[in-house]
Design brief:
Layout (H helix, E strand, L loop, with lengths): L1 H9 L6 H34 L12 H6 L2 H31 L26 H4 L2 H25 L15 H12 L14 H7 L37 H9 L1 H4 L10 H4 L7 H10 L12 H18 L9 H11 L2 H11 L1
Length: 352
């Protein structure tokens, strides 16, 4: 539409139809080179996730294998994006030259056609009396929408909870709560999900499938919508748990712990000092949202945070990693090590 609108506004012809044609074809190629590899990668990775050996084990238990297999497709998508963006630049150049050659029309005189008297027929439908009167239409629409809203919302107000509770699920500690905020701030949820689906391939890879009750204290929940990296919902369980030193090194440079990883490094987490000035306010905010922190716990939160942070820092120091307990990386490690722990404890108690 810009190729029509700009010449119209500047009262001139398009600078170059050849450039417009070039934009069309290079943009089309860009979309093709981007979309086809994206779909191909989706099917490829999905099949790899679900493939089992004849012995009944996952053929690709290491999630990273399913990512490195897509590197060439990522490269093709990069080419597609470059082609498409090149077309955009060509369009901008073409339109700028067009505008430069013309004179801008600030206001164009226009007339509306005369209104034709509407003749109401005798055989109109009954609802015409509503549709042609805005006030009546507004009132009737409001009543109908209100009825629908009441039917949907009132039942949720009349029951204490419509989510099955899990007794072992507890609120995050202050340090874990701060780590969760760092997880959100850094956009970890963009590449990592926290939702194990009820499929055999999922439970074999990660552990027990996710249940609604384990997210009752997540505000907001971190289910995610994409897995460029593995799901983290069970990261702290016995099946997937890694040492604190592994997480520290992984955030410093993912390639040190996972060769060929495409995850970017986060060295600033090791350098940045954790801001705990708002921790008490966060505890109070979570309590208002239904998280059962004891009354007055916000006064003790900082002390508990520092105690847990010191424990993690001491563990890192034992592994020859000089870490200060007041850094952001400590809080993120605490959060990652907590993921899935409560649910695994509930399963252990049930099996006894």
């Amino acid at each position: 539409i810009l190729y029509w609108l700009v010449p119209k506004m500047w009262r001139t012809n398009l600078y170059s139809k050849k450039l417009a044609d070039f934009h069309f074809w290079i943009g089309t190629l860009g979309i093709i080179f981007y979309a086809i590899p994206m779909y191909w990668a989706g099917f490829t990775q999905s099949f790899m996730w679900k493939e089992f050996t004849e012995e009944g084990f996952l053929k690709y238990p290491n999630f990273l294998e399913t990512v490195t297999a897509l590197k060439n497709l990522y490269f093709l998508r990069g080419i597609g994006g470059t082609l498409y963006f090149t077309g955009v630049l060509v369009m901008v150049y073409n339109l700028m030259k067009t505008a430069k050659a013309g004179i801008f029309l600030a206001n164009e005189a226009a007339e509306a056609p005369a209104l034709i008297k509407f003749h109401e027929g005798e055989n109109e439908y009954w609802h015409k009396w509503i549709e042609k009167r805005p006030v009546q239409m507004l009132v009737v629409s409001f009543v109908l929408v209100a009825i629908g809203g009441i039917v949907e919302m009132v039942p949720t107000f009349l029951i204490k909870s419509n989510i099955p509770t899990i007794s072992s699920v507890k609120p995050y500690t202050p340090l874990e709560l701060e780590g969760r905020d760092i997880y959100i701030r850094e956009g970890c949820y963009v590449c990592h999900s926290q939702l194990v689906r009820p499929f055999r391939s999922e439970t074999e890879r990660y552990g027990d499938y996710s249940k609604a009750g384990e997210f009752v204290y997540d505000h907001p929940f971190q289910w995610g919508s994409k897995r460029t990296g593995p799901d983290l919902a069970r990261e702290g369980t016995d099946k997937l748990r890694k040492p604190n030193a592994w997480h520290y090194t992984h955030m410093l440079d993912p390639r040190l712990t996972s060769p060929n990883s495409i995850m970017p490094p986060y060295p600033w987490l090791i350098e940045n000092t954790l801001d705990i000035s708002k921790t008490p306010d966060k505890i109070k905010a979570m309590r208002k949202l239904g998280v059962p922190y004891p009354d007055g716990y916000e006064h003790q939160a900082i002390e508990d945070l520092k105690k847990q942070a010191q424990e993690i820092a001491d563990d890192l120091n034992k592994n020859n990693i000089k870490a200060s307990p007041d850094k952001e990386i400590i809080a993120l490690i605490a959060y990652l090590q907590r993921l899935g722990v409560d649910v695994s404890m509930d399963k252990k108690q049930a099996s006894k």
